[in-house]
Input
Amino acid sequence: MAEAFLLIAAATGATLLLTVSAALIGIVLGAPLVLLAQSRSAILRGIYTVFVHVVRGVPALVWLFIAFFGLAELGIVLPALASAVLTLGIIAIATMAEIYRGGLAAIRQGQYEAGWALSLGRWSLAKDIIFPQLFRAVSPTTATYIVGLLKDSALASIIGVPEIVYVTGLEVQSLGHGLELFLFAGLIYLALSIPLGVVSRVIHVRLTRRYAVL
Amino acid sequence: MEHSSGHSFVQAEHLVKRFGEHRAIDDVSLSIAKGEVISLIGPSGAGKSTLLRLLNVLETPDSGTLRVGDAAMTFDGTPVKRARVLAIRRHTGMVFQSFNLFPHLSAVQNVALAQMRVLGRSKDEARTRALAQLERVGLAAKADAYPSQCSGGQQQRIGIARALAMDPDLMLFDEPTSGLDPEVGAEILAVMRELAADGTTMVMATHEMEFARHVSHWTCVMVEGAVIERGAPAQVFDAPEHERTRRFLSAVLGR
Amino acid sequence: MEHSSGHSFVQAEHLVKRFGEHRAIDDVSLSIAKGEVISLIGPSGAGKSTLLRLLNVLETPDSGTLRVGDAAMTFDGTPVKRARVLAIRRHTGMVFQSFNLFPHLSAVQNVALAQMRVLGRSKDEARTRALAQLERVGLAAKADAYPSQCSGGQQQRIGIARALAMDPDLMLFDEPTSGLDPEVGAEILAVMRELAADGTTMVMATHEMEFARHVSHWTCVMVEGAVIERGAPAQVFDAPEHERTRRFLSAVLGR
Amino acid sequence: GCSGTEEASSTSAPDASCTPAHPDVTTITEGVLTVAQYPYAPFSIYEDGELTGVEGDVMTRIAEMECLTIEVVPGESAAMITSVQNGRADTTLGSWYRTAAREEVVLLSDPVVTSPLSLISTTGADTADEIAAMTIGVGQGLTNAENLAELLGDNLKTYPSGDAAMADFQAGRVDGVIMGLGAAVEQLNLHPVDGASIMPIQADERIPATVDIGQTNFPVNQSNEALVEAINDDIAEIRSSGELAEIAEKYDYPVDATEPGEPNLL
Amino acid sequence: MSSFLPTTPAPLSWLWDWYQWIPTLLPGLGTALLLTLVSVGVGYPLGFGLALLTETRSALARWFAIVVVEVGRGLPILVLLLLVYRGLPSVGILFDAFLSASVALVWSSAAYSAEIIRTGLGAVPRGQFDAAYALSMNRTDMYRLIVLPQALRVSIPPLVNLGITMFHATSLATVITVEEIMHIANLEGSIYFRYMSVFMAAAVIYLAITVPVSLYADRLAKRLGGVMTVRKTVLRRPAGSVPVSAES
Ligand SMILES: Nc1ncnc2c1ncn2[C@@H]1O[C@H](COP(=O)(O)OP(=O)(O)OP(=O)(O)O)[C@@H](O)[C@H]1O
Ligand SMILES: Nc1ncnc2c1ncn2[C@@H]1O[C@H](COP(=O)(O)OP(=O)(O)OP(=O)(O)O)[C@@H](O)[C@H]1O
Ligand SMILES: [Mg+2]
Ligand SMILES: [Mg+2]
Output
């Protein structure tokens, strides 16, 4: 069993790779997407709504099958890891966009007006005024989502990406001890998520101490 | 004002702004020469804040025309041209009734930010100027405090310093002294006189008649979205033409 | 006030409140008899708002004692007893400098809510009373508007109506007239006189010296967290003892 | 242990002078037999880059005979057949029974071995009637699961894997577990239960796979007739040479199971 | 030897033949919905409680809440499930599959929602609490009538996200034999080898539930937000804007 523990622990790399890539994709590309939701054009807003609801509404497993097998039927043959990153990444974009949308609701209209009155450019308004307040408004929710993503990455085991759950499954196949091995895998997830949770709490407490919402 | 002679710096004609059914601004025309100080007085809800907000197009008029300096716009319900709006705002500074400070920035950062981003001043220069403006409004000691750590009057002065630091040609003050004690009020009065001496055009909404009388060249009385009376402060305050103005002003004296 | 004779309704002793290093309230004692109106004047940042917030324990003093009616508390850094705090607040209404209206409720809902939840009034009764209070401050027409649809002065009056509707024994006003024009200011003055006649005790921070003079029995001058002078308004305004007070008041006249 | 990587990895390299037994065989990647592998001992084991197990050894031999290098694409059971259908793998292994439903979507090869349905229990039961009175666990995808469901109703519990079913057998939540014989032997080793035995279930109409014994095979994409024919020939060759029996012995698998008889469909 | 180009019997046929599986899968919907309802209906209120506890003055309560939250969101639901279902029997507690699934899902959804709600509470200006206190409102009323409606503006989109995640996560209950949609889908897939079609059918069923629910939640959030401040894009101001309230 000791060997099994080692092998499972070694699979952490793949889990992290999947999580970090998907999270980055979501955090970065969710931002332009949420601009659609704020657009004046009803068509763009409609596109946003459809995208977000369909992407979020369909179970990730189904998207994974579409990315891995469905695209292959169209001649686009992606490796397993790429399919998994693509799937989780697109879901992350939709999710992060929704998180941003909530955060923007926390920012008062007066903040935009002050920026306009000062002739701040769009970029400066976004970067210097809105983003810092948005960051404060969404950082705990984002951390929570990344913790969830960490575990959602286990989905990739279906198509044989050797991340924690896949390797654990293999070891259970050959050794039994399902409960112990899965518990061990769970502890790895816990060990990965707790630092993230702590960092996000500390950041939030610091920001809250630094300035209060007016 | 019609009274002002020569070339006007701000020219607003037939501005109308509705909120639903309610006509918050009802066919207001204004003409202000460069360097003039105009005070807007009138009862609560008369439309003073709304008028100021129309002058830098934070609120889009439903109809009318507006020119500030070289930038002119006509409003007819179609989407406004961004470039024109920016040109107007570029000359214009505003002090909000509700301050609208940036809560995540300290006082000095609040004042320095737009200088760096818009005027392209260096970080050091912006900070130096920001401190100078804070000093000017008597707030040097609070430079590194966040807005939430400042008293009401202190927040108001940060807002004033922030607008001043941009060296605007046109300043819009929405009740700049409402939360200020007389002492600080007097300081702000002095600052405004300096500005006027430097040729800054100013429009301010105020409830303090004494303040309006001391600082402004012309006074407009607004009631229910319309300017019902305008003239030199001495004339408006001492010999109001309009019955409504008389009634409004009687409260000041009667208090 | 030391000046007041007989049994006091509010008794504060040696209150101290620090923000970090800064002593915002520095050993303030007050004694106010039932039905008295006290005005707090003084420069911006003197601690007027903070003192009002200490009086209903929105801010916990670092040390000192406080009694309002029957509810007494001693502060020594240990956690405060909730039941005592509630007892104090139960008698007390407050009008905030920044209004703090509930943005998701209409004006009349803002005023009615606490009546229903705290005083147990029926929905109809609460609404009727809310409308009556809004009427009293001249806002009946805006009953169904949301705060974001109201002008600054209208919001301020909603805040006043909200506090009045609770029939408090002690009212704390933080610059109740700062955003109001003289006309409405006079109405509020009238309301406060009615309250005083009904025996409501009032403490208000204000920058309007004339208002303070007209409405209050006693005036306290605060500077840097301390009450440096107190007395009848006529005495404080016309014959201030303290040099600092003289300097402060000279600004009013000089304006 | 396991050493699966997300990219397919090759096992043995073919001899350059190698002559394929069936030169007309085509595969997705030239010279490579891509195998979707569902780890399922003792049939299919992938360890240290080697495909082994009863079926794994046979597959390795077939690749040798056709001068192909094996590339393994691992995954969960749902991804296996789909891989073959979508051209991500040439064939797959992991004790896939020949069934009529499956024949509609893939080409089924001739049987490799049989794996009679067996019951693991502490009572030594082996008839459908006895089973009908018990609470039974099965792993997902077990053949005849729908027949068992008819027989047992709510007393049939389906788990995502045989391992999970066995764990509940140990916990006492089910009275017995039904699985193929090979898997049963393997699982009882991993989950020892006092007094438990493995009994092949006696033939009974209500469980068709006990009449027509389940035969395992290597499914192939419907458009690749040449490959399935080559596999069929090669299996026959391996069987007649006695090699298949040796492989079975190596894994303690009953040697009579290597003579499945005529192909059937469940 | 030329390379073999695979073709499926009918490429992309799963795009249109999924509907045949709907009747087979539908019976699983009830279970999935029931589990979701339990995990949201019990989990979110618990999450709200945990959010309050993580900000409380008592260090003991705070740490208790933080541990419950960190474990709840840190451990995979699968592991929570296995712990409850297979681990608890070893200490003599035998929950049936549905109850085990409920416990695990509620724990998870409470932990996640706690953090989301905490964020929302943090976005409510302090003045709102001050005003409620000054009006002598009790805590329940303050949170229910003043704070939550404003916090929800920030929290509704992520809470809807989470609700959908929990709805999908009910499929994990298949591990312990709860028969919901994905459980049946996997089973049917393994019999007929038509995974793509079956999964498509499952996706359609999920969508049929999630889209209306999240659209409704959106509208709810907009109703809360609409009266407060009308937000505008960073890019530009739409015409016909409502001025900001003068509160600061
Ligand atoms: N967004 C809005 N929707 C509806 N009505 C509005 C809106 N904004 C302002 N109003 C109304 O327009 C009128 C003018 O408001 P404005 O803020 O300009 O008044 P004001 O003269 O500045 O008053 P005050 O002295 O109280 O600040 C008021 O009656 C107000 O209720
Ligand atoms: N949360 C805080 N943190 C740090 N300093 C604070 C905080 N709140 C208030 N102060 C400081 O305490 C002092 C008193 O503030 P307060 O709001 O009581 O003044 P005030 O007399 O009401 O002034 P104003 O007339 O401008 O409203 C000010 O210098 C202010 O900067
Ligand atoms: Mg105004
Ligand atoms: Mg104050």
About this structure: Chain A touches chain B at residues 108, 110-111, 113-114, 116-121, 124, 128-129, 132-133, 136, 210-214 (CB under 8 Å). Chain A has one domain: 2-210. Chain A has a mean pLDDT of 88. The pocket of magnesium ion (ligand 3) is lined by residues B 48-49, 97, 174, 205; C 151-152 (CB under 6 Å).
